[in-house]
């Protein structure tokens, strides 16, 4: 997996490739987010489809990814501010089994209260982000359609992301 700061690949190119990949490998409903099932840190199963009717921010990350960790407090702030209005933040750890033991301590140290799921075989990240660049965010609208994708993180990206979330929530 790659941890991007937007040096090696342009976010636009990755987003374009990802949307193309989603359209060809996704479900029958064009633009629909591929449903998946993953367990959270306490072992509870979560399906993307259970959040239909809400705006969902899928955040793919790993413990070894510096930009992922810098982005986390911004996602937590959005979760706290906009959760009551219908935003669901699902952090999806792509750490393999060897690094999985580091996920809970990192989540605790960052004070994350949004749901964190595990994808140690990178099955779900491969569906949404075949290049496996990190961090990688997918915004899913209330109808379950992929609305936006963002690859990498640079300081200030959270402003645009929040504006897109607010638009999807209907301000």
Describe this structure in words.
Helix content is 35%, strand content 23%. The model is unreliable at 4-30 (pLDDT under 50). The protein has one domain (2-169): Glutaredoxin, CATH 3.40.30. Helix 2 links the parallel strand 4 and strand 5. It contains 5 helices and 9 strands. The radius of gyration is 15 Å and the shape is globular. The protein is of the alpha/beta class and 171 residues long. The strands form 3 sheets. It has a 5-stranded mixed sheet.
Topology:
Elements: E1 2-3, H1 11-25, E2 37-39, E3 45-47, E4 55-61, H2 66-82, E5 87-93, H3 103-110, E6 115-118, H4 123-128, E7 133-134, E8 136-140, E9 146-151, H5 157-169
Parallel strand pairs: 1-7, 4-5, 5-6
Antiparallel strand pairs: 2-3, 4-8, 8-9
In short:
By secondary structure, the chain is an alpha/beta fold.
Task: Assign the structural class, choosing from mainly alpha, mainly beta, alpha/beta, alpha+beta, or little secondary structure.
Answer: alpha/beta
- What is the overall shape? globular
Low-confidence stretches: 4-30
Q: How much helix is in the residues?
A: 25-40%
Strand order, biggest sheet? Answer: 6-5-4-8-9
User: Helix tally?
Assistant: 5
What CATH calls the topology is Glutaredoxin
Cα-atom Rg, whole angstroms?
15 Å
User: What is the number of independent domains?
Assistant: 1
Largest sheet: number of strands, sense, barrel closure = 5 strands, mixed
User: Considering the protein shown, what is the CATH homologous superfamily?
Assistant: Glutaredoxin
Beta-strand residue fraction? 15-25%
Average pLDDT reading: 86
